[in-house]
Amino acid sequence: MFAYLESREDIYKAQQALAQTIRRTFRTSERRGIGFPGGNVEEATVSTDGRYWYRTADFKNPGVPNPRRLNWFGLYDDDSRYFLNITVEINTAFTGRNDQVAGFFGRDNTTGMVYLFHSGRVGGGTKGVSKDNFLAWSNRRPDIVLDSSGHSRFGVLVMPIEGQGATRGLARYIDAIADFKKAVRAGPLDSPEYNQNHLDLEHFYAEARGRRRGRRSAIVDYLSRHGDVVDALYSWRRARLIGEGARIVKNVLVDLGVRRNRDLSEVYEVKTTTARGDVYAAIGQLMVHGVLPDCRRVVVLPRDQPLASDLKAALRRLGIEILTFKLDETQAVID
Asked: What is the radius of gyration, based on Cα positions, of the chain?
């Protein structure tokens, strides 16, 4: 579970740590123009790694309805004749909770690790570019972050604010939004899989809104790398025989599955720890979505973390297989 950072001091420290972490990867500083609907910034200081760029600044002029710290991100273009385009804004409020500002910070109650979250709200002035469409298209599963009053806010976990490899999650997120906007411009997002993802997303929100009220690795932050493991799992499964008429699927409810006709014949759930609560959750997800009697149900767990003997026995009794992965700073590998 995540706790919302609300005090001015906590948010300030988190924002400073975030900027420092990003600048350690985006090491080049430049003065560039930035273009966006409704206006431009002629001379802005940006940090870049040659592929992505980042700008941060305070936006709290008199009369501004939602004072905030700007966190702008985009794909870098080294041609200085052209303005850089914003792919996504993950701005954060200076204090408290403000749902009009898309970015916020949440602390993992188990590890104490702080993460940057984004509401999923994307813009750009193109019809079809919206939060729900992006989440359905990208199969992003929002997390629930609880504020001090016990109310929840949904957010996509983007990256930890510090740690080795922290910006890998940010890079994946920028690419996902950029690819989504390209897909919208190419034509309507209308396919059976996309439409089903939309329905699953609606069900997810409906269920989650009813909810009210470890040990941290010194090398690799597993939680923010969930997407890397799912991608490795997808490649691993795709390299093996699937069978005629079957296809690999991912959506907001299932990390990975193989669908034959309308039913899942295989379902995989990735957990980034072997903690009891995570394994309990995996069992529930696999049993709920793997409804066929002969469905292959697989939990995917980190290889370097021990699994309690009673949990192993429970998985055997339920016919749930265990697949393991290895994760380092640059990649995830399925064993």
From this structure: 21
217 within domain boundaries:
no
Residue 304 is classified by DSSP as T
CA distance 91 to 58: 10
In a domain, 255, yes or no: yes
Distance CA 180, CA 192 (A): 17
Least confident of 29-43, 65-79, 199-213: 199-213
Neighbours of 275 (CB within 10 A): 17
304-331 pLDDT tens trace = 888 989 999 999 999 999 999 998 877 8
Q: Tell me the CATH number at 289.
A: 3.40.1350
* DSSP strand pairing (84-85 vs 52-59): unpaired
Q: Half-sphere exposure of 297 toward its Cβ, with a 13 Å CA cutoff?
A: 20
Query: Which amino acid type is present at position 136?
Result: A
Judgement on whether residues 183 and 287 belong to the same structural domain of the protein: no
Structurally, the chain folds into a number of domains equal to 2
Average pLDDT over the chain, rounded to whole?
88
What is the CA 302 to chain-centroid distance, rounded? Answer: 19
Helix or strand holding residue 92 (H, E): strand 92-93
Residues 227 and 175 placed together within one structural domain of the fold: no
Three-state DSSP state, 12: helix
Q: What pTM was estimated for this model as a whole?
A: 0.73
Angle between helix 192-208 and 131-138 (nearest 10): 110
List the domain range (segments joined by +) for residue 246. Answer: 223-334
Residue 177: inside a domain, yes or no? yes
**Quick one: how far is CA 310 from the chain centroid?**
31
* Residue 18, C-beta contacts closer than 8 angstroms, at least 6 positions apart: 71, 116, 161, 162
